[in-house]
Amino acid sequence: MFMARQPIFNKAMKIYGYELLFRSDANSGKFEGASAMAATASVVGNLFEQGIDRVVGTAKAFINFDYDFIMSDYIELIKPDALIIEVLETVKVDGTLMNRIEYLKNQGYQIALDDFEEGYDAYPLVPLADIIKYDIRITPLDTLVSDVRRALSEKKTLLAEKIETESEFRQASDMGFHLFQGYFFSKPAIVTGFSVRRSSKEQYFMLLKELKKEEPSYDIMTEIIETDVNLAYRFMKVISHKKGESAFHSIRYALVRMGLTDLERWINILMLQDIAHNKPLELMTLSLVRSRFGEFVADNSIYKNRKKEISMMCLFSTLDALLDQPMEKALEGMLISGDVFDALVYGKGSLKPFCSLMLSYEQGDWAQVHQYAEAIRLNTGLLYEGYLESVQWAYKVLTFME
Description:
The chain has 402 residues and is of the alpha/beta class. The protein has two domains: 2-186, TIM Barrel; 201-401, no CATH class. It has helices spanning 33-50, 53-56, 67-71, 95-106, 145-153, 166-175, 201-211, 218-226, 229-239, 251-258, 260-275, 281-299, 307-315, 319-323, 327-330, 338-346, 352-362, 366-375, 383-401; strands at 2-10, 15-23, 60-65, 83-87, 110-113, 131-135, 157-161, 179-181. Helix 5 (145-153) links the parallel strand 6 (131-135) and strand 7.
């Protein structure tokens, strides 16, 4: 089983929900008949048993359903306040289906029309739909002006999918769209003559440089932290969640108690949090999920002895977007290996399979996932639980950061 999620934002760039992408077989494209039913039932069953909040937190889960699954009772395993029922564009509409959708709406479920490209007035499910999703690669924004105006007059929620640039986000927002899906949020807005906010960046690099030494000095690291009240505050907030401790009487004592491995991990995370100011929280979440997922993937591959390096690489994979700089510039001055640099900047080298697998997984390109997993000798059967654990870990870290 494979499952990933794609974020859906509102106009304020806050998370509204996640579309869940899944397959039971990495070598198949789309399912038909019984296999589609089985795959969807497996995902819905797992979400019910383990708790949907493991995957989407308090946000909505958007899940595609075909005709047979809509007619089944499985949907009702998930509460209406957590689920958006996406009706696939290939679903045959008949009286039985419409009666079932009316019933589900009466139970409190919201209905979304996926990749809508039908005639607005002619398509029979439009009156029952709460959300209409437009794939702007199939139906460009400029062609939707009249449909958008009509939908807004009928109080429909409009979702623009496959938004890849900030200008597309702005255009869709100005047109009246309410929700936005795509990876535009994870791309840098690079402009000339910019001034990047560098709060504590030098201190972070100094700490990481000290941590790379054969025998790091706690005295030197303490001095670095104590020169920046913001960094000291953030560090003590994090270390204060350590179990079994009543109080830390000094920064140095707290550093010793944390230990070098955890300290390096938290310094990386604190740095990203600090430079992520005025960026969508989902960008920080994505960095953390990738970091944990990358470590998991490495630990179960032939690169097990490099899992910390790969975890850091995945953590920094959004650094260009966080700093609004080209990746090469964003990595300037950081003590990272040539392999990490080549993978993040040029998309090549020995660590490329990890970056490619990570991106393919997020996009639901399961065939590519299978290909890159084979290259690093990874059992793809482990990915589902590894991804869920990574999402949970990211939520936990962000809670501690508050």
